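Teaching assistant here, posting this on the class forum so everyone can see the example we discussed in section. The complex has two components, and the goal was to see what a joint structure prediction looks like when all of them are supplied at once.
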Amino acid sequence: GQQLNQSPQSMFIQEGEDVSMNCTSSSIFNTWLWYKQEPGEGPVLLIALYKAGELTSNGRLTAQFGITRKDSFLNISASIPSDVGIYFCAVDRGSTLGRLYFGRGTQLTVWP
Amino acid sequence: NAGVTQTPKFRVLKTGQSMTLLCAQDMNHEYMYWYRQDPGMGLRLIHYSVGEGTTAKGEVPDGYNVSRLKKQNFLLGLESAAPSQTSVYFCASSYQGLKRNNEQFFGPGTRLTVL
């Protein structure tokens, strides 16, 4: 089946540092999404990418949809303690039904 | 406006018992989804619904049944619980599938343990 390779699995950084994580696949997808999950909560959508090459920002977050449509990255600039959580990439399964396929997540820890 | 709510928040079952998880949304969304999340894994789609009275299988549907009798509710049933179904279950809803600017909203989750 389809597999999203998300890396790194975990990151431990100091407040103020920049963060970069990425997601790759052997298959082509037309939509890439980035979610954040905090402890005890459901995922919350951060950024949605719908076009190859698209670069989108949301505050300190920036994400890009790879030209090959097989990858995406998420950058967080000047991290703060509330950035702590698990970040997931997700893709749509090839229709507009919203059947999402998730990566395994990147656990981010930010030290003050 | 409560968004997506899930009942119960926690539950412990014995193998072979049955239970129903309830998901409710007050956003008049057409599409609803049930996912499960296991340690170190992303969410995996169990079943989904594209409207009242409709259901369809997702990635991992075995051992689960669902019903969408009312637009605002999506029920997930376990007829005979197994330890492999120990997981955190998330419900989500969206207005109209996956289109630009059409976000999928998630509930807070139900933590289920099957002994």
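For the discussion questions: The CA atoms of residues 24 and 73 of chain B lie 5 Å apart. Chain B has a mean pLDDT of 94. Think about how each of these relates to the inputs above.
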